Amino acid sequence: MARLLRRRGLDVSSAHLIEAVRLADTLVALRDRPLPGLEELTEATHAVLLAGDALPLQLIEQQLLVGEELGRVLPETPATPLLADLHQQQCRLRLREEATQREVVLDLRQARDLERSSLLRRLQLLNIPWRQNAESVRGKGTFQESWHLQCQPEFTVKLIEAGVWGNTIDAAATGYVVQTAQQHSSLLELTVLTSQVMFADLPAAITVLMQRLQAEAALPSDLTHLMLALSALARLLRYGDVRQTDAGIVEHIVTSMLTRICVGLPHACHSLNDEAAEAMVQHLRTAHDATTLLAQEALLADWQRTLRQLADLPSLPGVVQGRCCRLLFSNSRRATKPSNHTGLPVSFS
User: Fold this and answer.
1) pTM recorded for the entire structure
2) Is the pLDDT of residue 135 over 80?
């Protein structure tokens, strides 16, 4: 323990060691035990060498008590089909299993990195804990993504459990997604799941999800849920081709959802209290950003007409009318700039 702490730049003298040994022996005598055990040594280290600081104690537990070395099994050892398929893909894509956390930056324009991303996202759908947490995946532009990978002990156990969905990673992820899609009735949950599946490159599962999305989008639903789902689908349509996925298959659903939003918004904005009006303002901004992101003339025209209709309704809350006017002004493509007495254009911030 002293050597490890010294390598980390912590001051541990011989006097510290002598006092820690004495404290461990004292604890043994008080507890009527023959020799100091791990509990006594840890408590003595925490009290004397670390002065009660718990953070270096975590380092000792991680590197000395648990360790960072992974064992290996012989290649001829029998394995489940799903585990064998994963090992084969790991070797082909050169993805190593390591106990320490490692950052892997993938360039999605490269064929191998695109396959790596698809494999990692399929494992993510199967709840395989190769990544440390959900925040370990972050976008860098549209062509790069960063994964913080760390192999955990339950990795193999979860792979064996996922074998009920299929014998390959592709088949297992598809089977799991299809079962999950049949259980979900929330339009927003189905939309998020669709984005994950398209990025994971699972065409068989996408067909089922499209049918579920069409069925749920056709049913009467809260407009706020439609707005949130529209935002996720708009990002999918706009950036789906970065991963060479066919995002055009959701275009019909997006058009029908936006049409329902435009028809229902004037009625949904009536009789709102202050709290509901503030929430509607945020939903309007979400739907506006999604429509602008789509960059389709027909959809933009429909959305602009709806905003003008809302801005002209006197019975709507002022905060909603004000937000509609602001969105119309910010999206105006041919704003007229007045001139001052010098003849120079006047700019507005």
Assistant:
1) 0.64
2) no
